[in-house]
Amino acid sequence: MKSSRSRIVLGGILLAAASFAMFSYRHADAAIVAPFMTIDYPASALPPGVSGVVATSVWGVNDLGDMVGTYGDTNGIFHGFVYRHGKFSTVDGPTGPGGDIAVYSQIRSINDFGDIAGLFIPYSAVASQTPGGGFRAIYQKNGGPLTVYQTAGHLNTIFNHISNSGIVYGCYHDEGTDTGPQDSMYGIVGQIGEWPNVQVIMDSVAAQGTPGSTMNVGGNPFGTRFTGVFYDHNDGQALTAGDVPGRHRAYIIEQTRLAGGGTQLERTNFDVPGSNNTSSWDMDIVGNVVGIWGLQQDTDTGFYHGFLRQNNGNFLDVEFPGSLDTQPQGINNAGTIVGSYVDAAKKTHGFVTWSWYLGANPGIIIPKTPVMASLFPFPSPAIAGNPFGGKGAMGREGFSPVRIGAVNAISKDLPLQAPSHVGMACCHRHPKMDMAMHGSALSALRP
């Protein structure tokens, strides 16, 4: 159909990538050849008064290839964006009373209906140095009015993911910086239409009297399996005499049935092997998770590595070739992974890559969707052009040529590194490090 042809944008990227290399999955100690597409917010789509872009990060992708994220402009403002129907557009948080503009907007998720969710920070929160950043959650139903959500009695609310069924994943918190545990942070999951009546998820040691420090980031459309990040106070070693144990870890929560017919939520905490900081960022419908991990020598500089945790428990280290930092931040049910990377000049770009070719691994479950059917089997490198019609994304402004890199399997017997308190609890590098790295005048947001 015409709508499918025009909206499955990434199919064009896929076939363009095919002319560079055939992908393959080998054994656990081998590397996987992978394509990476750079995405920069295009100059032609900038709003009036903005002369250029200093950073781009892609945060979410739906099953139709629509993408969302954030970009920083030359005026020091960070905007949210949507890429849909082959076009980029800016979506910022609303301006409040007295011209209280949104100085940092970020769209983190888009579902197949075009509903979007994310966050923004108003200038008033920056000026008053609101604890925790002053985040407000935002939601928009398929191009309709933008709605602001704040959890009653709390200073910060963040929406990370919106599913096709209207399930929203996110968190709220009251204090903390990106380098600390943010004990007041609690994960939330529930129907957007029933807000604020959503389920609150605390950390794994809450029963021992430890506060929250938990954020839900993504999961299935039903709220019955999802992933997130928390700060584990009871794990890891102290780095100095005056320090305390603790590190960031990821989790998966899944609803299981009891023998008597009821249900309960079971939680599995996990770490990328050898890492002392692990943060998941999204999950597809069959339980494959993407996120970031770091070692002490890397997290001192704020740079991280990307990972894909397959639903069979295997880990793959996802790195944009030649980058200082790679952060996968979204995955759809067709195996498309989006995120950001920092180049040698310390400029942030968005990227797209794919996980679905790992289907050659018999231990991983691949989601079967109409989009997946259009991608299998992997096309021959000899095939040129775009079977969906049009130029494909390779010919669109904002998309750069494919680079070929490696996705390395991570050994499961790596020793755990010394823990780091350089955290990624809520937004890790975003927005504070983004603004510092790219010369924003909003110095009040810096740690």
SSE layout and pairing:
Layout: H1 2-7, H2 9-18, E1 31-39, E2 53-61, E3 67-73, E4 78-84, E5 87-91, E6 102-110, E7 116-122, H3 123-127, E8 136-140, E9 146-149, E10 156-162, E11 167-173, E12 186-191, E13 199-201, E14 214-219, E15 225-232, E16 247-257, E17 263-270, E18 277-283, E19 289-294, H4 296-299, E20 305-309, E21 315-318, E22 325-331, E23 336-342, E24 348-354, H5 370-375, E25 399-409, H6 432-437
Antiparallel strand pairs: 1-24, 1-25, 2-3, 3-4, 4-5, 6-7, 7-8, 8-9, 10-11, 11-12, 12-13, 14-15, 15-16, 16-17, 18-19, 19-20, 20-21, 21-25, 22-23, 23-24
Characterization of the model:
The chain has 447 residues and is mostly beta strands. The protein has a single domain (34-370, 404-445), classed as 6 Propeller (Neuraminidase), CATH 2.120.10. 8% of the residues lie in helices and 38% in strands. It is built from 6 helices and 25 strands. A 9-stranded antiparallel β-sheet has the order 18-19-20-21-25-1-24-23-22. The longest helix has 10 residues, at 9-18. The model is unreliable at 1-30, 205-209, 358-362, 366-392, 418-433 and 436-447 (pLDDT under 50).
Q: What are the key terms here?
A:
nine-stranded antiparallel sheet, four-stranded antiparallel sheet, mainly beta, disordered N terminus, 447 residues, globular
Provide a short characterization of the protein structure:
With 447 residues, the protein is mainly beta. The protein is 8% helix and 38% strand.
Q: Note the overall shape.
A: globular
Strand content: 35-45%
| Residues in helices, as a percent range | under 10%
Radius of gyration over C-alpha positions, nearest whole angstrom: 20 Å
Mean pLDDT: 76
Number of strands: 25
Number of helices: 6
Low-confidence stretches: 1-30, 205-209, 358-362, 366-392, 418-433, 436-447
> Which CATH class applies here?
Mainly Beta
Report the CATH topology name: Neuraminidase
Largest sheet entry: 9 strands, antiparallel
Strands across the major sheet, in which order? Answer: 18-19-20-21-25-1-24-23-22
Structural class: mainly beta
End-to-end C-alpha gap = 50 Å
Assigned CATH architecture: 6 Propeller
The count of domains is 1
